[in-house]
Here is the input.
Amino acid sequence: MNKIMQFGEQVEGYQIPVLNEREIRAAAGILFLMMFIAILNVIYTGNFLLLKYAVILFLTDILIRVFINPRFSPTLIIGRLIVRNQVPEYVGAQQKKFAWIIGVILALTMFVLLVVVNSQSPITGLICFICLIFLFFESAFGLCLGCKLYSLFYKEKAQYCPGEVCELKDRQDIQKTSWIQLLIVLAFGLYLLLTVFLFHDLLNNRPFALFGEDNHPQTTEHGL
Here is the structure.
């Protein structure tokens, strides 16, 4: 029973239970894609059915992680299969559990409001946005935003963070950002704004059908 109901793995060389960050990031990417498609479906069709299914799956998956064992989470299992040929990157299990408890609270709130009560409100919209932000940062950047809050609630320092961000050390030269690079990013942002300002009307025209007949009316300058 202890092998089933546990959180984290005991790995030689690590003093506390750990998890594989690589499969966690893969699972976060799967959940992000699922939630993103479901939310887009609501935006463009007004149909909430796909989002309701996504919320149920999201809640079930994260409940398994927190209250049974991350090893039995369907998305983490799929993530493990995807990254099975990559060298594991071990992270402390305790801060991940704290982050996923936050996920349970968000997903449970969504489940009650959207599925049980069958309601929509700015609350559900805000929670969806927060979930997407958490999942995106985890999958794209390897940043666990929930883990960042761990140190605010617990006195002990988090151990074995992704990329060793918990350890104080000087950045290597390849990690440092020069003023020229920052100016390039700023110039790129200005370039984007200038492109929108100068070419908005031109780019707003609907593309014609290169092959076959286009049954859709051309977009006017007002976007109608």
About this structure: The chain has eight helices and two strands. Residues 219-224 have pLDDT under 50 and may be disordered. The chain has two domains: 18-169, 170-206+215-224.
